[in-house]
Design a protein that fits this description.
Blueprint (H helix, E strand, L loop, with lengths): L1 H12 L20 H10 L5 H6 L8 H13 L1
Helix pairs in contact: 1-2
């Protein structure tokens, strides 16, 4: 799952994430590109990403926490 998230983020934002604890919203990209990432994760990979980010605060928007929350939801 982490590799898929990394690949989709790189595809649309051209950013390789080295630190999984870094807030993803601090990268120097236009916020308008994020919907493309979210749509692909939701529609193509069937990750419940919208459900996950609805319950997150700004400071939790890291690759590490996204993976944890997605894993928790998929286990339920």
């Amino acid at each position: 799952m982490e590799e898929t998230l990394r690949n989709v983020i790189f595809k649309y934002l051209n950013i390789f994430i080295e630190d999984t604890g870094q807030n993803l919203l601090t990268f120097p990209v236009l916020l308008e590109y994020w919907p493309y990432v979210l749509i692909e994760l939701q529609e193509v990979y069937h990750f419940p990403i919208i459900q996950v980010i609805e319950q997150m605060s700004y400071d939790e928007f890291t690759l590490e926490i996204l993976c944890e929350r997605l894993t928790q939801i998929s286990i339920q």
